[in-house]
Amino acid sequence: MAAPHHKHVFNNIQALRGGKPETGDLALSDYHLVFRFPSESSPPTDPGAKRQTKQVWFAFHVISQCTLRPTPPSSGKPSSIRIRFRDFTFVGFNFADDKQAREAFEFIRARTCRLGSVDKLLAFNYHPPASSLESKINGWDLYDARAEFRRQGVSDKLPDLGWRISTINKDYTFSSTYPAVLAVPSKISDNTLKYAASFRSRARIPTLSYLHPINNCTITRSSQPFVGLRMNRSIQDERLVGACFSAGMTEGNPLAGNADNSPSSSHEDLTADGADDSDLSRSEMERIEDELIADSNAFYDEKTGKRLIYGAQQHNLIVDARPAINSYAMQAIGKGSENMDYYKFAKKVFLNIDNIHVMRDSLDKVIAAIKDADISPLPPNQELLVKSKWLKHITGILDGSAIIARQVGIQHSHALIHCSDGWDRTSQLCALSELMLDPYYRTLEGFIVLIEKDWLSFGHMFGLRSAHMSHENWFTVDNDAMAGATVRPGESAGGGDTIENAFASAKRLWFKNTGNDRDGAPSSDESALVDEAKQSTSNISEEVATKVKDVSPVFQQFLDATYQLLRQHPTRFEFNERFLRRLLYHVYSCQYGTFLYNNERQRHEARLRERTHSVWGYFLSRRQEFTNDQYDPIIDDHTKGRERLIFPRLNEVRWWHQVFNRTDDEMNGYLNAAAATAESIAAYQNSSGLSDPYGTGKDSTSQSEEPSLCSASPSPQPQSLTSSQSVLAGVETAHAALTPEERTSASLNRSATTGAVPAKFEAFQDKISTLSITKGVFGGGGSAGTGRDRVGGHNSNNGDSHIDTGQEMRSMG
């Protein structure tokens, strides 16, 4: 990028990063903060040598938190600006002149949260050098929805596989947050789609995301239905979902005719010679989940209640990504989850993946663990990392995606996925399960198509979730520093005058609440700036203005989960870890138009294709830089390590330490040590023939919910889900009353998914039932032939099962 015109240059500024000070010049342009060191005004160490100047660039729009700490001139201590970036870079700047510090702070704030219009973002002013390869690649042309569906086998010019392309949303009037091109069942007319749309939130009807090329099984996606407390239904929606689940079937067989040619799973090959024991043990939870899903078959005779046996059985799933209690809470405001009495051709599973608010709070705790990275070289706070439960959330998302991938790729079944509005957790699950199923999506171009399809086209709200317009709350003035505290290498930001600072803060709060801002009140100039800010932000469209409660690291979690798969299967991905890291950076940089706005319609109306460049041109022009040297493109289902399908090893989930700018030992040292100890003990037990040295009656290779008796240190154990902590929180079916015989399984009894319904759910059920609005809200009191079988519960002795239903109501994420 061409050198920008610098509006302000501040000389002899001390920068702090990792506790290491560096003196240089701070230059501010309209879009970047550039730190050059050593300072041009400083005398060279060797007068005869050519001065070597380094530059570090920081994009304003990547700023996540900026704090000004002014100090009085009489203190003799520098004022400082501490900045945290969304790529987890932490840097501090010390200014000898307090006026300069304030000037720099206001300049940065004005060009982030006070722009007033999306058109003023960097993307509308960025142009790659004319002679560069990037300028010759049009990244906007890389994704074509019709071409991708044609690759999957859906096209008017190809044999009918049960799906057709609909243009019902070509002008975005059918559903403003859906793509213009939709693939729907061939037997369903556009007129039926219009009626079905009224039963789904924001008219986000069930539509095709992925068609398996071998067994014709599908992954479809939608938003939640308008069930409500009265258990509403829609015949058109039921027909549409039924058509989605039967589109690839041949007459007389619930499976597609070529299902026998489906690739074998990775798991089936684990019994081959040389298979390692850790791979064998990891399938225990997967086996329990599959057995639980298959426990109640989807095909029954409605009169006799007896199971109908076909040559091969499907276990079609409606996957609700939310915790069950949150789903039922949504019924109170007219939404909710499918009443399975009307979808007897499928079962419904709840995946217990938390909402955007829980995920935002989780990342905030991670940030708290590394927040002093500018002034301190110390490692992260391990206790806070564990309390964040970040790895638990990543593991749960991977587990849920693997369940879907196994159902489609191994069990030859269909899956319909939704959460609330179907653009956050739904996008995570669709994209990750397809990544596990299809090697094409593990290539560089394929991964780009996957993001375009399941994230950008289907309406993940990048503008709101990524806070491209920033927010006033993220720019603060810490007047406690007026007491004399300053930021120096090796010191925390708290200062030593704790009591005095507390009194000063309370005093300011008192005057603020009483309308008399005397102590610490802003000057007249600062008041004018505040008024200017209010005026500029008031002009921002409601659709793009940042709302703090809407910000959440949903896409970052997807990239983190992808990193876990890449780390565990390093030869199966064409792209490398740095590609994922740079992709996360450019989600926030606003340098390209790709991730601006919240859906395809908004990007189309803003004419981003004509006015901005696509980020894919940046990556494709630097292909060698982002290519994985270990990549093996050969697919051979008969060779271990080259199978079409890949699955995560949940007990090997680790911190993506590179994205947090930390070493593997700093972030994962205790996890790696615990894993190494467990492997050593398992190897010793296997070599000595001790499968159960403690007489517990359990196989030493299986995962247990109990703490390991062989742990070598009190370090926290890996935050991955064991066999008793499956993300699968419950299964619903309409056939419990038709099949009175009791079906039990010893393996299921060991799973937390067969435990009692959580106490919070029972309490919520009791409260709703007292409303006496309708019968059968929770399956009790329904008609005799419409019973429900729920397997609920999530075993959590440490409070992991806490659900905030109010948060779920506030967001349709």
Automatic annotation (TrEMBL):
Residues noted as binding substrate in the record, renumbered to the chain: 355-356, 419-425
Ranges of Low complexity composition bias in the record: 707-726
Span of domain Myotubularin phosphatase: 139-660
A molecular function GO annotation: phosphatidylinositol-3-phosphate phosphatase activity
GO CC annotation terms, alphabetical: cytoplasm; membrane
The protein's name in its UniProt record: Phosphoinositide 3-phosphatase
Annotated region described as Disordered, given as residue ranges: 254-283, 689-726, 779-813
Any one biological process term the GO annotation gives: phosphatidylinositol dephosphorylation
Classification via Pfam families: Myotub-related (PF06602)
Family, as annotated: Belongs to the protein-tyrosine phosphatase family. Non-receptor class myotubularin subfamily.
TM spans (from-to): none
Active site (catalytic residues): 419 (phosphocysteine intermediate)
